[in-house]
Amino acid sequence: MRTAARAAFCCLAVLLAGGAVAASAGAGAGAAASSRAARPPIVRWLIPFGPKRKHEMAAYSERHYGEHTWRLIHPQVIVEHMAEASSAAAVRNTFVPDVPDVELHELPNVCAHFVVGASGRIFQLVNLRTRCRHTVGLNWTAIGIEHVGYADADALENPAEMRASLRLTQWLRCRFGIKIRNVIGHNESLSSPYHREDVPSLRTQTHGDWRHSSMRIYRKRLRALGRC
Ligand SMILES: [Zn+2]
């Protein structure tokens, strides 16, 4: 979620969380397309997302998309992010407190559904049936995946992280019937056909992480994994 100010949104405050809980993921449900892509190992490490946060997410959706719901139904886009953080715990710690985010000062706090670590471990932070604030204009229909690292190349050039990211994305896109062209980088958000934003001042807002040139490589590698 790279922002102009490095401290924004993600993760520079490296407050290590205690107690990563390893368990199998059961990554949520939703309408499933047929999928032949194998589900990669996923550690379920959910952030608190109780009634208050859900209510705030529904109000956010009302303000930005004109629909009062916190539910993510039939996701049609997957957005790849760079967290600007050195560990999955740091990423998670940024998302845990339900406080206004440092960039747009809105509630609920930002989050993403998954974070991929530098070692290739995948953590699920939010249920797939719940909307997360990770990409202005697309939160109504997009699954968000954070990557540990500071620049696109940190993930692209890390074989373990890249392999895990591609496996996760392939599994998700096959599960939900998401086309490869709708696997995008955060920086590509404004050109997505699914982008919509009711707040005029945010209609051209995006971040610099996962640029088109990086995503061309990413999607080529994803395509190499084969069809669903
Ligand atoms: Zn991002």
Summed up:
The protein is an alpha/beta fold. The protein has helices at residues 51-65, 88-95, 152-156, 159-176, 212-224, and strands at residues 43-44, 77-82, 114-116, 122-124, 142-147, 183-185. It has a single domain (43-224), classed as Lysozyme-like (3-Layer(aba) Sandwich).
Structure description:
The structure is a single chain. Helices cover 26% and strands 10% of the residues. The protein is α/β, with parallel strands linked by helices. It has one domain: Lysozyme-like, CATH 3.40.80.10. Strands 1-4-3-5-2-6 form a six-stranded mixed beta sheet, with helices on both faces. 44% of the residues are buried. Residues 2-33 have low confidence and may be disordered. Bound molecules: zinc ion. Zinc ion binds at residues 1-2, 81, 186, 207, 209.
> What is the rounded Rg?
16 Å
Low-confidence stretches: 2-33
The count of domains is 1
Structural class call reads alpha/beta
Bound small molecules, deduplicated: zinc ion
CA(first)-CA(last) distance: 28 Å
Instruction: Tell me, briefly, the overall form.
Output: globular
Judging by the overall fold, what is the CATH architecture? 3-Layer(aba) Sandwich
Report strand %: 5-15%
Q: What is the CATH topology?
A: Lysozyme-like
Order of helices and strands: EHEHEEEHHEH
Mean pLDDT: 88
- In the sheet with the most strands, the strands line up as 1-4-3-5-2-6
Would you spell out the secondary-structure blueprint of this structure?
Layout: E1 43-44, H1 51-65, E2 77-82, H2 88-95, E3 114-116, E4 122-124, E5 142-147, H3 152-156, H4 159-176, E6 183-185, H5 212-224
Parallel strand pairs: 1-4, 2-5, 2-6, 3-5
Antiparallel strand pairs: 3-4
The site of zinc ion has 6 residues, from loops.
